[in-house]
Write a structure and sequence with these properties.
This protein is α+β, with helices and mostly antiparallel strands. Helices cover 28% and strands 27% of the residues. An 8-stranded antiparallel β-sheet has the order 1-6-8-7-3-4-2-5, with helices on one face. The longest helix is centred in the first third of the chain and has 23 residues. The model has no long low-confidence stretch (mean pLDDT 95).
């Protein structure tokens, strides 16, 4: 049985240059959970700890039906409900939606079944807040950020300059794809795709 590995099979989605570039992102399927607070804060951590068990629950159901897949990378959409730039807003006020992409053969029925199974087995009530939704970002500017998350503003400046030079404005939420596991990778070598829908 072949195993679907989106990270290896969809290099267009999971790769980026060290310089700003354009990319077209069509509709894709995700498990999502939304919240508010600092990255790595309690709300954020609890949400990650609900999202992954459900993703593996979906994977296990698919595997039994000979549709196995590798659980892809964690992603996040970020925004603030303020007129101020995000970096001028206290981190506890940051809004986010965490994502884990799902293959095309995953259905609402599979996700609902996995929710019941994982909640019954693990007792993680927060799983009930996870949604299965389609997201289409369309035209985007993206760049590969290498280094700690704290230095992302320097890379985002490059994206903004590229957008200004090409007459583009933001048309969606700031999107990050975490290619590296921060528990296993030194900060200086973390690889994160920064993506911004534009028009």
């Amino acid at each position: 049985m072949d195993k679907t590995d989106l990270v290896k099979q969809d290099k267009e989605y999971y790769s980026a240059s060290k310089k700003p570039e354009m990319r077209q992102i069509n509709e894709l399927h995700f498990l999502t959970i939304s919240g508010k607070g600092a990255p790595a804060g309690k709300e954020f951590t609890n949400s990650v700890e609900a999202l992954y068990p459900l993703a593996y629950g979906v994977k296990n159901i698919c595997k039994k039906n000979e549709m196995d897949f590798t659980v892809p990378k964690l992603e996040g959409l970020w925004w603030v409900n303020s007129d101020k730039p995000a970096l001028e807003v206290v981190r506890n006020e940051w809004q986010w939606k965490l994502l884990i992409r799902m293959p095309v053969f995953v259905t609402n029925e599979i996700v609902d079944l996995a929710k019941m199974e994982v909640i019954n087995k693990r007792g993680i009530k927060r799983i009930s807040k996870i949604r299965f939704e389609n997201i289409s970002e369309g035209k985007c500017v993206q760049i590969m950020h290498i280094g700690p998350y704290s230095t992302e503003p320097e890379t985002i400046k490059q994206m903004k300059s590229f957008m200004a030079e090409n007459g583009l404005i933001e048309n969606g939420l700031h999107h990050e794809i975490y290619l590296s596991d921060p528990r296993k990778t030194v900060k200086e070598k973390l690889r994160t795709i920064l993506r911004q829908p534009v028009k």
